[in-house]
Amino acid sequence: MKNNSFEISKGIDWIIVGIYLVLVVTGIASIFATTYRDENMISGFLSFKTDYSRQLLYFFISLVLAVFILLTDSKFFTATSNIFYAFGLILLILVFPFHTDVKGTKSIIRFSGFQLQPAELCKVFVNLALAKYLSSLDLNFKKLRSQLIAASLVLVPAILTIFQSETGLALVYFSFFLVMYREGLPSAILVIGFSLAVLVVMTLLIDENLLAIILTLAAIGFVYTAKRQIKRDRSVLVLIVSIWVVAVGIQRFAVPYFFNNVLKPYQVQRIYATVGKDFQVDTESMSEEDIKKMEDKKKAGNYNVKQSKIAIGSGGFWGKGLMKGTQTRYDFVPEQRTDFIFCTIGEGFGFAGSIVLLGLYLFMLFRIISMAERQRSAFSRTYAYGVASVFFFHIFINIGMTIGIIPVIGITLPFMSYGGTSLITFSVLLFILIRLDADRQMVIR
């Protein structure tokens, strides 16, 4: 801990703190606008029984943690990174025997009236552990072994999260691959990842036999184009054929297996709906209860997005005003305080308010990146890029869900959505960065 209590303000980036406060207050106001039901406002805030009062309580807890972080020596985070990571994995494992089913997810632990979602909290621990590993003095990140170790730090909690029916949160963990790219991960790996995503989409849109023919013709085209290189080096032909075999294997076997055995039927339907296609589920092997759940979730997902678009569109350019939106005020948009909180801004403050909010997020992201680039410590730089990547994924996916360009996978909007674990996690992520940045003149190892 710092000996001088006044050092808490030394070197702090107050601009990023200001953005944080504006976003959190805006979030509480949005939750208030959608959940206030004519009770006494003062008693409503002091009761901690309403959603907006509980979010205010979570904000106070976040501020206490923020002060504690700002009073903590920066070296504490490097020294305890691996311990926190191990603690996070233990929490994720404990979810399996002690979880509580909440709206289809099995990722929440409840105790004494509070609930904790370790998959959210573990984003902090993964970021710390990855920054610790990537900043190791003897690390050669060009070696495959080092890349696999870094990837495993991310993939292990992601896989555990998937088994807890939290596919959306698991996808966010893949944002850490952007950090690895910044620290030297070959761009070819990202190109392969992007190509796989395109292949999956093509598999959904194009008949499987036709797509196999297209992939075969493409391989033949590459062989013809590279015939001179193939004459000099036969390994080029082996590479092209290998890529073709893998692509056809993914298209014919891996994607169908993943969609039929890993994802839930309603998740598959949402993905197909996003790319403009209808998906017929084979219900012969399903129980009546499972069929009903699937149909309910399908209707709910379609209804949510439809009502979300109506709410945002009805706001027009300037909006209807806070607490004057009919769609969000009268609960036409389900989950409008959590996953669909952006609807409240769209309806209440219109296109102008939405642009201002997006501008704040964009400025925050650029500010975090600039903070990353001015670090002298590899640990601090890597951690900062992790924060930026996590925030970017959450913002992009959440807002994409509300306007219907991304399947509804259920992740929160940073600092805005209702939820204690979410708000505390994002606050801790940010304030650890602020503490590291305040000590940027020190070389932290």
What does this structure look like?
The chain is an all-alpha fold. The protein is built from 18 helices and 3 strands. A hairpin with a 2-residue loop joins strand 1 (100-102) and strand 2. The two termini are 17 Å apart. The relative contact order is 0.14. Residues 1-6 have low confidence and may be disordered.
Layout of secondary structure:
Blueprint: H1 14-35, H2 41-47, H3 51-70, H4 75-98, E1 100-102, E2 105-111, E3 114-116, H5 118-134, H6 144-162, H7 167-173, H8 176-182, H9 187-205, H10 208-225, H11 227-232, H12 235-262, H13 265-274, H14 288-314, H15 326-329, H16 342-373, H17 378-402, H18 420-438
Antiparallel strand pairs: 1-2, 2-3
Helix pairs in contact: 1-3, 1-16, 1-18, 2-3, 3-18, 4-5, 4-6, 5-6, 5-17, 5-18, 6-7, 8-17, 9-12, 10-12, 13-14, 14-16, 16-17, 17-18
